Every structure is written in C-alpha cells, then in structure tokens.
Amino acid sequence: MAKKVILIILLSLFCIQVQSEGVAVDSELDPNLSPMDVMDDYLRAIGQESTLEEIPVEQFNPPVRKIYSNDLLPHLGNDDVGEVVRLINAGIDVNADLGAGTTPLMYAESAEMAKALIDLGADVNHKAFDGSSVLHYAVSADRAEEILSVLLKAGAVVNVVSVGMNGETPFLATKYLFIEQNAFNKAARIARILYRYGASVDAQDEDGYTALMTATVNDKPRMAEFMLMLGSDVNLRSVDGKTALEYAKELGHYDIADLIIKSPY
Fold first, then answer.
1. What does DSSP assign to residue 58?
2. Phi (first) and psi of residue 127, to 5 degrees
3. CA terminus-to-terminus distance, the chain
4. 191 near 228, Cβ under 8 Å?
5. Is the CB of residue 50 less than 8 Å from the CB of residue 43?
6. 3-class DSSP state for residue 128?
7. Residues 88-117 pLDDT 10s
8. pLDDT interval class at 4 (50, 70, 90)
9. Closest CA to 233 of 252, 253, 209
10. How far apart are CA 100 and CA 49, in angstroms?
11. In sequence order, what are the residues at sequence separation of 6 or more whose Cβ sits closer than 8 angstroms to the Cβ of residue 20?
12. Nearest-angstrom CA–CA distance, 129 and 215
C-alpha cells in the first residue's frame, strides 16, 4: 500500500514537470486525466518507449546514504553488536581508523562485541598512534576482565609495550586502577588475568619502575603486597639506580619496607 501511495505522488510530480517544461503531449492536461495517462503521454513525447510498468522500481528509489567508519562509534558505545556487525558487513573496514589510530575493537564494551569484531577480522594486536595496544584500552574498560580474556585467547601479545604511555605494558597500566581509581579488587583481578597469560610482574617502564616500585612510591601497601605475592623481584633497580626497598626507606613508607624485607623474592 505504501509503495502505491509513493508511486502516485511521483506520478503527480511528473504532471507538474510536464506543465513546467512545456512538453507537447497527445492528451490535454485536464484535471480528469489520471497521473498514469499523463505519464504515458509524457514518455511518448520525450521518446521513451518503455511503459510505466517496464521502468525498474529502483529508478524511483532515493539514493542510499553513504556510510562512514565513524558511524560505528555510537553503536560501539551502546554495545549494539548487531548494528556494528551490519555496518561492517555493509562495507566499513573492521580495522578502520576511528581517530588517533584507534580501531573498533579498542572501543568494545563487552566480550560479545569483542568476539564479533574478532570474528570479522579485527586485529587484536593493533596499536594506536600513541603506541597503546588493544589490551591497553581493554584494561580501562568497565568490563575489562571478560574483554581481556577474549583478546588474550585470540592471541593478543600480553607484554606489548606502549611508547606513548611511558613504555608501560598492560600489566603496568593496571596502576591507574590501583592508584588513581583506588579500585584494588578490580585491579587485582585484571592483573591476575594478565599474569595468568604470561604478563611479566617485573616489567619496567621507561623510568625503570616495576609495579612494585610504583606501589612503593605511591604508598600503596596492598598493591605492594599483591605484587610481592606474584613474585616481584625486589632487587631490580630503576633508572635512578634504586630498588623498591630503597624508595620505601627514603620516602618513609615503612609498612611497605617491612613487606619487602620479609619477601622471599
């Protein structure tokens, strides 16, 4: 029914076009003529042999709006897996640049979204312009634990280094959860997942800081104890040539100093 209404409107517009262009037709344009009759006369006048019934329906369809990679962003944010898959199947590159070298997988908000993008060919080891990897982005996601598991099972390199983040690995990046967000339980769960997949607890950033040193300098005893439980090497030195114990004593963080002294590592 809707298609018929649209067709009648289009035919009516042709009537107006005939009048405005002054095309000579066989029939007078009187109000009693049906739009179909006017269309037939108009086609004959311009040398068009086809009857209305022979004209493809597509000829009357409006042009389809082009799709762009940024069309994915709102659907990624809403975790609309179906719409993201539809847009990618419609032609958007699954590894398209969504800004600063980021890709759709970096904005995955759930394990389902991550799986869908990986199945479509998303690169689990892609890096943004600042050197941050897909894993670095996943660490800060609300549902980081489930997303990280999907990425690591798909082959994401666990000890990848981000130059733009002071040479941090994803494991070192958990410090933002431990320290800035004070979300110890979540940070510990994420760190355990990374550790289980081979993350080095003794990874050092560009300043030579390990996670243990970071915990020590920021006076985070629980974080320090957690890193010691994972086997942190207490003898490693930073670029400044200091160990975690030396930082603890220098800064007066004696609770952490005691933990380090008692550590078997």
1. G
2. -120, 140
3. 78
4. no
5. yes
6. coil
7. 999 999 999 999 999 999 999 999 999 999
8. very low
9. 209
10. 55
11. none
12. 28
